[in-house]
Give the backbone structure.
Amino acid sequence: MPNRMPEPAGLLLDRSETVEFSFEGRTYAGYKGDTVASALLANGVGVLSRSFKYHRPRGPLTMCGQDSNTLVQIGHVPNRLADQTTVAPGMTVRAQNYWGSLENDRLALLGLLHRFMPVGFYYKAFHKPRALWPLWEKVIRRLTGLGTIAPDAPHGYFDKAYLFPDVLVVGGGPAGLAAAIQAADAGGEVLLVDENRALGGALNYARFDADGALADQRKAMLLRELQARPNIQVMSDTLCNGWYADNWLALVRGNRLYKVRARALVLATGSYEQPLIFHNNDLPGVMLGSAVQRLIKLYGVRPGSRAVVATANSDGYGVALDLAQAGVEVACIVDLRADPPADELTAAAARRHLPVLVGATVWEAEPEGRNMGVRAARIARITGEGTCAASADSFACDLIAMSVGYTPAAPLVYQARGRVRYDEESAMFALAELPAHIFAAGSLSGAFNLDAALEEGYRAGWQAAGDAGFGFGPEPACVNPKDAVGRTHPWPIFRHPKGKDFVDFDEDLQVHDLENALTEGYEHIELLKRFTTNGMGPSQGRHASVPAVRLVSKATGAAMDETGNTTSRPPVGQVKIGHLAGRAFEPVRYTAMHFRHLELGAKMMPAGLWLRPEYYGAAPTRSEAIRAEVKSVRENVGLIDVSTLGGLEVRGPDAAEFMNRMYTFAYLKQPVARARYVMMVDIGGVIVDDGIACRWHDDHFYVTATTSGADAVYRTMLWYNAQWRLNVDVTNVTAAYAAVNIAGPQSRAVLEPLCEGVDLSKEAFPYMGVREGHVAGIPALFLRVGFVGELGYEVHVPASYGEALWDALMAAGQSHGMRPFGVEAQRLLRLEKGHIIVSQDTDGLTTPHEADMAWAIAGKKPFYVGMRSVSLQAEGRLTRKLVGFEITDRAAPQPKECHLVIRGDEITGRVTSVAFSEALEKVIGLAYVASDQADEGSTIEIKVDGGERVPAAVVKLPFYDPDGARQEM
Amino acid sequence: MLLIECPWCGPRDEAEFACGGEAHIARPAEPAALSDAEWADYLFMRKNPKGLHRERWCHTLGCRRWFNVERSTITHEITRIYAMGEAAPANENEGEA
Amino acid sequence: MSRYSIFSLIRHARTGHRDWPRAWRSPEPKPAYDVVIVGGGGHGLATAYYLAKEHGIANVAVLEKGWLGGGNTGRNTTVIRSNYLWDSSAALYEKSLQLFEGLSQELNFNVMLSQRGLVGLAHTQHDLREIARRVNAIRLNGIDSELLTPAQIKELVPIINISPTVRYPVIGGSIQRRGGVARHDAVAWGLARGADMRGVDIIENCAVTGIRREGGRVTGLETTRGAIATGKVGIAVAGHSSVLAAMAGFRLPIESHPLQALVSEPIKPIIDTVVMSGTVHVYVSQSDRGELVMGAGIDVFNSYAQRGSLPVIESMLAAAVELFPIFSRLKMMRKWGGIVDVCPDASPIIGLTPVDGLYLNCGWGTGGFKSTPGSGWVFAHTIATGAPHPLNAAFSLERFHSGALIDEHGAAAVAH
């Protein structure tokens, strides 16, 4: 590790442990705590990647995860930040986006073609002839994209957690620490999050005074205070990644996404240091001043041997002092300001005799062979805004540090709809207005002076605590100057005739690229961004956005504020799709008999949130299994789990009136102990649900709903009664009951011996009757209904008895040859009876008249939901109608559901249900047809797979047992 | 994610609620007496204001009751929560539409 | 006006590309126009373009309150397809797809149409029935569509998980091979440049504040850049349609909802088709830049805020990761929201309004981008002739009175 400094440099290192990892196939050693980037720099490796468009070599720029120069592939995960990812033993790291080798990238030739590849060149070419573009697209797709991902990379374990602090403080720098301390003193729970490993923010690396001692003193004090307050929860290595309505925030740590609801929020997210724009400002070895300080202080890495520091504020002098102290020769401090004011740091630099040039800038960086590094900086005198004198002096160096200004790290402010305004005096964007329950402190709000940042932090903590209901003591005062003015150069852009003056490193955009786009009319900042892709790379415009605003403002003559900034939306930074996906809690509902079905070999299928048996048996025998199940119901007896049907209790003096309004049929005079069909239409007269209403007492109905419709039906009922205020109470008891339908000629025989308190005889318990009683000792409701068209009983019992009921019935049915049957058999059985299934035989527009369900509409009611629309439909002309059809020609191919009914060239309808009926020995089905095809005896044509048209006869429903003798026996 | 103050259960996350759309749509006393256009108007036409909006929410994963909410469709800020049947509050910052 | 071609690129290289002419002018609004289009998104620009090109009406202004294509045109997932269920929808979207197929050449602007095929997934028997119904119906309308088995889907999309043991297994699907994606911004810019070349005035930063009427007729508009007299106004302001209708004194059967989408960081190609699933509310494709582009379902409440809530994104990504486990380690880079107009029957309104001379184009829900040229083409016809084209006759505002709705729920991948 030739560039490693001796201890104590390297706050984050644990030098007791050496870690070996590989980069581009070569093995390197770092210390525990090193990031990939710091370990490589310590070993003299400065090039980590190749750029997106011109494949230029790139090295670390920010050392804090804010640039995409350090995106590398680690194992099967692409685009990891090398300056944030700590090294682990055996880690395999590869550079991205090159062809050949990192040192010798054949695609660097693209850089030579740059003249023919201006921004947006792809909009202007490749479209003629038409066949050309698909070929070019393939080439372009292969060239773009960073990193690769293995097709079999697994999801991995990600999860989510929830937190509810009174005050959330984002940012663990001086201002954030002060805020947390002050808020905690007021009482209440405080959560402090920081995206770095160590709390302290700039106190960990920046220099605030001549001898560099102040930061450590302040940090020690703040951390001591912090530890003394048990109501502060600290989460470091945690990124606050998004603000959502009502202070709901997303935090990311490790593989966990935390969702936080905070009463009050303190933002102390600091600011992003901004690069200087000059020729070859993207070379490895050109980095931010703060990156230099981070390397020295956090990682004990000497970032170069001879440095030029370009600066426009006193922080640059601090950088130079740090470099000098680290044993790096400072070739020159180039101060862009013509007349820099003297302060503690400039004075200290002067005392150390560091050479200073004022009113000048780095005009060019001279590349080391094949752009792999810096050889010298050419420095020229500034003659005007963005212009320099013709002559430049060359200073040999291998490091150029840039300290020319900041922009607030304000993504969360933008997301929370705070306002940011350009401040001419400080040449920075500044917070102008914060929404309720949000407070800001530190350099985010322009407090660069350390003591001012602390004061602001205490005040913001006090304000936030008060806002959260923890008022305490007098408001802390802010007396120190913020020192925002003089930090940021108003025009750090030096357009070079040879270009390579990069505004956006991610997208390889140079000053003239933006200027040319402006000339072409893409003048709105958002248009410019989209046309040039400025700020659209992984670093999200942290460095590219403000210079773009400056360039637009200059070109259009509009003020910086009118030009505006592009918006910031979540995420703030690195969040993996896996974080958001988490463990994918998609609820599945099991009925009480679920495991019995599995034991019986059921093939389960989703039905809404539920799983239901599709049929019992192995997949290859699907059709035989279904056939046997059907046969068993028709000839003996079968048992189906119908627990998933919705169940709603409607009770109260107005229950019958309520039912009368909700459903189309008549319920006022429905006798007690009888069931009646229910059909619900929406206000537009479209069928939305159906079921059975059982009247237990004058003021008590039990209503079933379809499996997937139950919740919506319940919600709709409450919705209407919130307006009608009828004296009823509606309860959704779907999950409270388990239910089976035992059906078939033998069903009475199976059930009878088990029953107590209920007489199953035809006379005592007729078709459509309902009774209460016990079965196998279990309290039960009995509904004698006939969906499948045989003698049958629905038995509803408390859900906890579901399995016991199933077992008792299965045991009792054994001697009668009873079989369980699934949804598929039931579908066929009901088809034979001509019953519709809502949502299979209806769609989002089906009316009762179209579905031939007019019989279920009470003619003489004053009102029901949708009545007006249904009456309109009744008067109007029907365009389609649901009919039964049969195909008697055994040789004809069997149509499938959704095959179309065709007349001439016209689609007149479609098949909604179809099956071969063993009982009837023919293909039967339901289909929509044109209304003039709907008469019994008409012939329709169904277009089947392969295009053949199969004739079918329209017949009267039901197909099976038209008199209903079997279900009423 | 909105924080909605259910009148019965207190403040809860939006995820616990269902939104039922525009409130205060008066059901015609005599639907049969309406013209087709008037009926269509009742069925389909909505204010959809940009600004303050009165809508119905149901605490589906809690008490399952419906109530009225006054909320900005621009900022999502909830300014009032009131019972079903209560008249719409007067407010000068009415939405544009 | 300079034509765009590989040769002009080479020619302009000599001057460092400093002298490309403006893509479109930036004129001051004139006091009067034959037609004013409100809304400088794809639909408005396409309408102006086809008014000039097909109907010879070039004295047209397009008013945009912000920047061109800044609404839903620049906020969608760029998917193009025409596999809709009902004849009237299929015909309109097919017209649009056909116009897209020649758009780059016609506009002399590469909109990067990529007909990479669009796969729809079925996860339940109900899905499969719906997909089959649609495939059968639209094939009869002459539109390409095929049913697929899980194995065929796996072949087209090797990274998809077709394991039968997941929560929503893939049990089948369909493909429209002519479906795909196009670069959304380029569609707006190309149309703007094309309309401008034909004499249309495109006026940015110009918000409409009032609609002048006399005796039930439109006479002009009040704007933030002064009054403009005109006898014909076409509104194409998806998201804000109700606001404009209110200015003209009527209401619409429309509600505005947030619709969110996101992109991942760029990676090398891993998915070569568009994949969509209605049941789990996911659609995904990979852009030419290498980003995965994914769309979610709409948020439940009305909003004009161009932002949605995180849970919608979370549930969408949970489903996406189950289908594509390899997405898990990729980072989400940007996420955004648009405001979509939603009609009760999930179909658009393109036609006349209660005010003479005022025409309306709205209610596209999630279908707006793919219909851009087709919508503009029929809307231009409607404005030019004062009567709808047969392709948009069914999409009248009047259908809500007559009850002749067109139910396209299920047509979009996501529930409306």
Remarks:
- Chain C touches chain A through 100 residues (CB under 8 Å).
- Residues 115-180+258-340 of chain C form a domain with the D-Amino Acid Oxidase; Chain A, domain 2 fold (CATH 3.30.9.10).
- Residues 125-140 of chain C form the longest helix (16 residues).
- The two ends of chain C are 43 Å apart (CA to CA).
